[in-house]
Design a protein that fits this description.
The protein has a two-stranded parallel sheet. The chain is mainly α and 140 residues long. It contains 4 helices and 2 strands; from the N terminus they run αβαβαα. The longest helix has 20 residues. It starts with 16 loop residues before the first helix and ends with a helix.
Length: 140
């Protein structure tokens, strides 16, 4: 298994960051290759926009920042020239929006202009209601 490559040698502790980063890039390339042909195509765009939804800074140690940086580096490159990260929407839950310092720490090298804030308390608009009968029909 590829994950075994990033485990420390016997008698050592910790994970080799360089090895982890290169393995993440390989994992992301494999994932992109597996979905690139089946992803819906938009005829009105020269590239397929990609929205990344990572956890926020409270989950810094999840490696989600490294994964997003790896995806951002791969998408739009020669590996996946028809796809491009257009937005990053950290999943805040009930937390405050990420600060510029948190963004640059968790997502080093990514363009801060890609980051969006989802104000779940104020930005949600009701566009309709589903009657209970419809919900019950879909559930069964």
């Amino acid at each position: 298994m590829v994950f075994e490559e990033v485990l420390p040698p016997e008698g050592k502790s910790g994970i080799d960051d360089d090895l982890l980063n290169s393995s993440l890039s390989r994992f992301m390339s494999i994932a992109i290759d597996s979905v690139a042909d089946v992803a819906p195509k938009r005829s009105d765009c020269k590239h397929q926009p990609v929205l990344l939804i990572p956890p926020d800074f409270t989950r810094f140690h999840s490696q989600a920042g490294k994964i997003c940086c790896s995806l951002d580096g791969i998408l739009g490159s020669n590996t996946a020239p028809n796809h491009k990260v257009t937005d990053v929407l950290p999943a805040l839950g009930t937390h405050a929006p990420m600060t510029p310092s948190q963004i640059s720490t968790m997502f080093p090298g990514m363009d801060p202009a890609l980051f969006r804030v989802h104000d779940w308390r104020n930005d949600v608009k009701t566009v309709g209601h589903a009657p209970a009968s419809l919900v019950e029909k879909v559930r069964s």
